[in-house]
């Protein structure tokens, strides 16, 4: 159909750039994976406009919620054509944020937006999220898939929201932290989901490709960059059953320097540089980019993905429990009275 002036009229939503059929196909491809995360707490509501969850067994429940995205890590996945790990990234990132409050993650919702919806790509991301949810005992109760060519162009965005719950008395606020307490660091799996704008720029400027290798990595740079964000839910649950945990921090953007003080109730920390194992990917980035150590510490986790604060006398037992869960962990420093800052010795 043409107007008198010769301009082509847009006759459908698909011709304008959005495919309803592709969205429906994506939903069909991911349905089984999503439903596989549903336990007895999920209230069935076919065709509902929101996910429902039955909350029971709590005397004074407190809800904890968070929302975050995987950022420019999606550009690495796009370059390599491998997207499934992004689902685990966003589930584990959000679950760790909820965990740091003292709550247990219960439900998760995803948001995948793109300029052009490819059902298999979206289904792969959501299937990866569902697998991560099953491992953590979290219900994937809903989500949104959006196709917006005018906004995203060829880009992809992956976002998630998580809701958890605990008794009011189980909250970990940092109020119990005292000078002299031990700071324990739990091993990260690598970059997790932070610092990718710098990490990608370093490779580009140095002429290093995702298919290249680097000493110590044991795999390609691309495989290292796509390593999923590690979750700590099972490990912290095991620890809290045996030891009083006074503070917790998820080490994301800002590194130990900015995230650890948030868990210390106004106190600070003195950390022993070199007291934990740093994955070789950080040495690669440091060397290729000529990045100063202060900047590395402000951008990356440098091998510590989560911190817990326990009484000094409990440090050894706490480490034994964490090691028993299969988690590498180290006594990396102590709490000190230095006004909410982190020092490195």
UniProtKB/TrEMBL annotation:
One of its GO terms (biological process) is adenine biosynthetic process. The keyword Ligase applies. CDD domains: PurM. Residues 178-340 form the PurM-like C-terminal domain. Keywords: ATP-binding, Cytoplasm, Ligase, Nucleotide-binding, Purine biosynthesis. Pfam families: AIRS, AIRS_C. It catalyses: 2-formamido-N(1)-(5-O-phospho-beta-D-ribosyl)acetamidine + ATP = 5-amino-1-(5-phospho-beta-D-ribosyl)imidazole + ADP + phosphate + H(+). GO terms for cellular component: cytosol. The keyword Hydrolase does not apply. Pathway: Purine metabolism; IMP biosynthesis via de novo pathway; 5-amino-1-(5-phospho-D-ribosyl)imidazole from N(2)-formyl-N(1)-(5-phospho-D-ribosyl)glycinamide: step 2/2. Its EC number is 6.3.3.1. InterPro entries: PurM-like_C_dom (IPR010918), PurM-like_C_sf (IPR036676), PurM-like_N (IPR016188), PurM-like_N_sf (IPR036921), PurM_cligase (IPR004733). Belongs to the AIR synthase family. HAMAP family: AIRS (MF_00741). This is Phosphoribosylformylglycinamidine cyclo-ligase. It comes from Rubrobacter taiwanensis.
């Amino acid at each position: 159909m043409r107007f008198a002036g010769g301009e082509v009229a847009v006759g459908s939503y698909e011709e304008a750039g959005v495919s309803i059929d592709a969205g429906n196909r994506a939903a069909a491809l991911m349905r089984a994976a999503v439903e596989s995360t549903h336990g007895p707490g999920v209230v069935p509501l076919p065709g509902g406009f929101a996910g429902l969850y039955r909350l029971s067994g709590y005397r004074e429940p407190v809800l904890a919620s968070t929302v975050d995205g995987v950022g420019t890590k999606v550009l690495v996945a796009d370059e390599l054509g491998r997207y499934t790990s992004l689902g685990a990234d966003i589930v584990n990132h959000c679950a760790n944020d909820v965990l740091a409050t003292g709550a247990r993650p219960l439900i998760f919702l995803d948001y995948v937006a793109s300029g052009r919806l490819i059902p298999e790509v979206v289904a792969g991301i959501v299937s990866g999220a569902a697998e991560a949810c099953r491992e953590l005992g979290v219900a994937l109760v809903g989500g949104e898939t959006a196709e917006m060519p005018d906004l995203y162009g060829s880009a992809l965005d992956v976002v998630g929201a998580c809701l958890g719950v605990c008794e009011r008395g189980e909250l970990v606020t940092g109020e119990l932290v005292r000078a002299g307490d031990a700071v324990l660091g739990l091993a990260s799996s690598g970059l997790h989901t932070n610092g990718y704008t710098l990490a990608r720029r370093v490779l580009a400027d140095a002429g290093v490709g995702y298919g290249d290798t680097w000493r110590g990595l044991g795999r390609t740079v691309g495989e290292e960059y796509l390593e999923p964000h590690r979750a700590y839910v099972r490990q912290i649950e095991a620890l809290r059953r045996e030891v009083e945990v006074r503070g917790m921090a998820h080490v994301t953007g800002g590194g130990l320097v900015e995230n650890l003080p948030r868990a210390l109730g106004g106190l600070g920390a003195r950390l022993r540089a070199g007291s934990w194992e740093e994955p070789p990917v950080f040495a690669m980035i440091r060397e290729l980019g000529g990045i100063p150590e202060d900047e590395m510490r402000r951008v990356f986790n440098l091998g510590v993905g989560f911190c817990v604060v326990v009484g000094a006398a409990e440090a050894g037992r706490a480490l034994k429990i964490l090691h028993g869960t299969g988690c590498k962990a180290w006594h990396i420093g102590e709490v000190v009275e230095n006004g909410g800052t982190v020092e490195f010795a």
